[in-house]
Design brief:
49% helix, single chain, 4 strands, alpha+beta, 77 residues
Length: 77
Amino acid sequence: MIISNDKYILDLQGSLGTVYGDGKLLFKGFSGTAIKEYIRYVPEHRYKFRGVKEHQRKMELAKDLEKARLKARENAK
């Protein structure tokens, strides 16, 4: 998926993301970090990634819940 404005381009390919500015490579790496970098340069496109942010938040909450369950299970022994 490619998202762009006049100056910046975000290219997402699976779990990899690349950000270009004025034809120059600015970032290449994990797609979540690439999205953050792109939003840093183009904050008006933040609305396009609302679903991604919500999904990341849900995954973090699920990890926290699992850690709490494991800790409770260890404390019960």
